[in-house]
Specification:
single chain; alpha/beta; Rossmann fold; Heat Shock Protein 90; 5-stranded parallel β-sheet; 5-stranded antiparallel β-sheet; 45% helix
């Protein structure tokens, strides 16, 4: 059952809000102030947070900011009193999902909740389908074409979003890592482009890439991408048809000199964003593993 946590120091307003919540078939939970709300959320995440902005101790505004940091997936509706319109705007900027005037609580709360819960329902459906997921494997074969990597990364983003695999920030990091290794396979592997050329003027790197894309043996080479999605992890395997390289020759990406170079930062990003990174012996295949974290792990500060 959908749960709405109502945070208000007024017991009267709590009862009014609860009447609307329960009329919709949802369950109400209560907290008399922001600190109590945080204690409740540490024990279990509500589906929606409905909070007053003006309360003793920690304000509703501070609560919004804290919840956004600790539990970014929980939608927040703020309740405003007369004269606190600017506070409502500030709360929306801080991460609130919607707002409602206390003067119109009985009239507007049900519609506002239904709108927000429609989003929650979609998220819960994605969580449910992820629970049924046993495994799915998808394969792609790419050549050096404008937009190919971008299209693949867009697919990866949609796939992981469809099962609520990770937080928004982790999703961006995962897509960045996939983009790096696919680009590496197409350009450094198949076209045998030296990454040092990126540092050269006059766009030498890109001009040579276009030239080799029309020449043999480079033109016939392909990159093979396999995505294996399971309930608790996703694996990306990317193989090119180039001559490969010695994985042991990779520089330490944390070396200060390496960090300041204008090129060659891809390995640092990939190793930072992924849980595991493995190369085959000849260096023409890399496997990336990203494990799913619990909501608490994802929300924890780094």
């Amino acid at each position: 059952m959908t749960t709405v946590l109502i945070v208000d120091d007024s017991s009267i307003d709590q009862r009014i809000a609860a009447e609307c919540v329960e009329k919709m078939g949802a369950q109400s939970e209560f907290a008399g102030d922001a600190q109590e709300a945080l204690q409740v959320i540490e024990e279990r995440l509500p589906d929606v947070l409905l909070t007053d902005l003006v309360m003793p101790g920690m304000s509703g505004m501070e609560l919004v900011a804290t919840i956004r940091e600790r539990a970014p997936a929980v939608p927040i509706i703020v309740m405003t009193g007369k004269g606190s319109e600017q506070a409502a705007i500030d709360a929306l900027k801080a991460g609130a999902t919607s707002y409602i005037s206390k003067a119109n609580l009985l009239r507007d709360l049900e519609d506002t909740l239904r709108s927000v819960l429609a989003v929650v329902s979609s998220r819960q459906a994605r969580e449910q389908i992820r629970g049924y997921l046993q495994g799915a494997e998808i394969q792609f074969i790419l050549d050096y074409q404008p937009g190919a990597t971008h299209a693949l990364v867009g697919f990866v983003q949609s796939l992981l979003e469809s099962v609520n695999f990770c937080s928004s920030s982790e999703l961006m990091q995962t897509c960045t890592a996939v983009s790096e290794v696919v680009t590496n396979a197409l350009e450094h592997g198949n076209l045998e482009l030296d990454s040092a050329l990126r540092c050269e003027p006059d766009n030498v790197y890109r001009k040579l890439a276009i030239e080799r894309a029309g020449m043999e043996p480079y033109r016939s080479r392909r990159a093979y991408v396999t995505i294996r999605l399971e309930a608790e992890q996703v694996t990306f395997r990317v193989r090119d048809e180039g001559p490969g390289f010695d994985p042991g020759s990779l520089p330490d990406p944390t070396d200060p000199e390496f960090l300041t170079r204008p090129c060659g930062r891809g390995i640092l990003l990939v190793q930072t964003f992924m849980d595991e990174v493995h190369f085959n012996d000849i260096g023409n295949e890399v496997t990336l593993i990203k494990r799913r974290r619990t909501p608490v792990e994802s929300a924890a500060p780094c």
